[in-house]
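INTERNAL TRANSFER SHEET
From: sequence group
To: structure group
Subject: WLM domain-containing protein

Please process the attached sequence and return the structure record in the designated field. Keep the field labels unchanged so the import script can parse them.
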Amino acid sequence: MGSSHDLPSHNNCCSQETGKREQLVMSRLTAHNANLRCLMWQRRLSLVDWRIKVIVARLAQLGEGTLGDCDITRVKRQAQIRLLDLRDVGGQQFHFDGESWDWELTLVHELLHLHISDCFHRGWPGAKSEAGMAAERMIDALARALLAGYRK
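Return from structure group:
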């Protein structure tokens, strides 16, 4: 993971949480905006003891059909979250299950993986396994509920 000056401090993020201007700025997916939003969600999700870096990744790095992923080092409490770069969807909003892609939803989804990573000491179950599909459904439902509550 990068050094501590790579990411904004937790204190600087507090002023980013309110106001119309902030909403407009934060709607754009940049590494800076994603890391600011990550800090806010780390506080909300009690993940402040984790060292997390968010990067914007190209489709070739993520793989077809992937909106984001998370590389977790549990013992060091470090993670790197990669979010899909919108340039790879031709400037159009990526549609997933009939909805426009919301990068903040993907960010919260990936952060929730950190909470349940302790449940899977031997690694994440296969995406096609029953346990893997159930865990993804649970994470997705929680991410949607958390984001909806925050945006009210």
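Handover comment: Residues 130-151 form the longest helix (22 residues). Helices lie at 10-14, 20-26, 31-44, 59-62, 103-116, 130-151.
Transfer complete.
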